[in-house]
Design brief:
heterodimer, A: about 180 residues, alpha/beta, Pyruvate-ferredoxin Oxidoreductase, domain 3, six-stranded mixed sheet, 6 helices, about 25% strand, globular, B: about 350 residues, Rossmann fold, 2 domains, seven-stranded mixed sheet, five-stranded mixed sheet, 14 strands
Amino acid sequence: MKMKMFFAGSGGQGTLAIGQMIAKAAMEEGKEVTWLPSYGPEMRGGTANCTVVVSDKPISCPLINEADVLVAMNLPSLVKFEPMVVPDGLIMINSSLVSIDTSRSDVKSVKVAANDIAAELGNEKAANMIMLGAILNETHVVEPDTIRKEIEHMFSGRKEKFLAMNMQAFEHYLSK
Amino acid sequence: MSKVLMKGNEAFGEAAIRAGCKCYFGYPITPQNEVPEYMSHELPKAGGAFVQAESELAAVNMAYGAAAAGGRVFISTSSPGLALMQEGLGFICSTEVPIVALNVSRGGPGVGGIQPGQADYFQATRGGYNGDVKIPVFAPSGIQECVDMIYESFDIAEKYRNPVLILADGMIGQMMEPVELPPQKEITPVDKISEKKPWAITGTDNHEGRNVVFSLRLVPDVLESHVEHMFEKYAEAEKELVRYSSMNLEDAEIVFVAFGTMSRLCAEAIEILEERGIKAGLIRPISLWPFPDKAFDEIGPKTKVVISTELSMGQMIQDVKAAVNGRFPVRLIHRTGGVVPSSLEIADRAIKHLEGLK
């Protein structure tokens, strides 16, 4: 198994964070993994993207020429990065912020109204957790239980008040 | 031992702390900012001191002073910052003071850009300091290697009483991979430093005489014998510190030579070439000085071309040519200024070089 994933959005959406959560979960499950962010003079609202490679074997290169999975958290990310998806690949689209579908006819696209659902659950900031659940639902790249443990760890101590909300957001697509 | 997912820059910091680093001096510069950030909150917890200096020039000279007093000292910067530190590094070599320095390099020259670069190869291996000086340089290509290299470098620096430089690049600094962290080394208590480092400036301790760390030697004969003494150490380093890894050398048509980020791309280019029916191999210098000349003796008779693959206009290629010594044609694949080529581009350009030989 080797899965090359590309996560793209704008700074503050938690796009790099969900890529990192998958990377960490894959490591906990004994898989090989690399996480590589784009970096630059960016800020909240600027572009933010990262590459995650998960594999059973050692990973030669953390940079990718093509992606099996693209997660597009906003419109510019979809337009810019849809050409890098392999034929029969998967594009996860945050349809709350992206009103169009992919122009590719040879890939599977899944629309997730991440911001809307998160807002309904009480906190739009958890849109990335909605998407994370949807990604696992589609790709099975890591086990949901591994992510659940991570979420519990992330939202402990002073942040415990955010735990229930984020867990609920993560579970939204998994329970479907 | 369980693994943790760490960014290269944080891994450098944590490994330095576990190696017993007592003092860190730095000044912010991308793409290594996570190093001072990490050291600022973690080093004091481990009983060490973090100082954000007012410039790289100040940082290197603070490191010089702290190391002369016997501390385990770590400094980090990125390309133009290392240029500012050159004078200090020369003095530190001359006075035989051990420190570990890290350069998470970016595109140059001048202030340049902030994306990954390897155009500091000359700056790292030749240096910009005056006089006859060598500094061991190691280049990691993955995060576990970042950890292992920093952890060992303090011992190397103290054995040779010389700086050791780690040359990484922006991609290595920014990316995350699982790592196993080594155990915490014991930090030498201040009152025991003079036992371990009898040359260090630790006060007179109620005995006669005192240690002086100095670089000025006005009598030519005296200076010459000091430099000859330094070169006896460097001769030993050339025997002891050569590090490299290699793959597929015995039956490769193309042999890539690449370090750091470029070696990761070459490893994937080798897979792409194999799918196209071309056998390629890789020499990855881990020590850039001393350069692993002997790795090139392993190249088999099927090899048609050796390709130095670099994120610069071609600097390491000089050492590659010297090591190949006319046995094979040597070519260059490069991008510079912070542009990182794809593994596909490397594979395509390698095929063009192969065809160009006919």
